[in-house]
Design a protein that fits this description.
alpha+beta; three-stranded antiparallel β-sheet; about 55% helix
């Protein structure tokens, strides 16, 4: 089975502080679930939930948690993101101690240098590499 790279990227980018994305290894479908639903599915008796939407989301979340066919997509942590920024900015600013700068300060250097478009391309290429490396490690074929 092949998984569409654009589906993996979409699931990857939907992951924020409130979502988690999973790949169904049987169908190739990427499913994004609210972290709140995952927590409810872990801790609650779903049948006791009164809200129908909350209940249906918790059921899906529990199915994901209990099934071995779902694997979580990788996430970009702040440290990974900062390392990407440092690598990129190091090409703009030579001989500076970039590791002591915050993410906001690094992003400001990119904006002020007028390299936003190049940064976005660089960032996307690094994300694609992260996803393809993850897929390779998990024996997932990408198309």
């Amino acid at each position: 089975m092949y998984v569409n790279l654009s589906s993996l990227l979409e699931g990857f980018f939907l992951q924020k502080n409130w979502n988690k994305s999973f790949l169904n290894q049987s169908s190739g479908e990427v499913i994004t679930v609210a972290l709140r639903s995952l927590e409810i599915a872990k801790k609650s008796n779903i049948e006791d939930l009164q809200d129908r939407l909350e209940k249906s989301e918790a059921i899906v979340a529990r199915q994901i948690l209990e099934s071995e066919i779902f694997i979580p997509l990788p996430e970009i942590t702040d440290s990974i993101y900062k390392n990407m920024l440092i690598e990129f900015v190091s090409g703009l600013k030579k001989n500076e101690a970039l590791t002591v700068l915050s993410i906001t300060e690094l992003e400001k250097i990119i904006r002020e240098s007028g390299k936003n478009t190049i940064w976005y391309s660089y960032h996307l290429s690094r994300i694609k590499k992260m996803i393809t490396d993850w897929a390779f490690d998990n024996h997932i074929k990408i198309k």
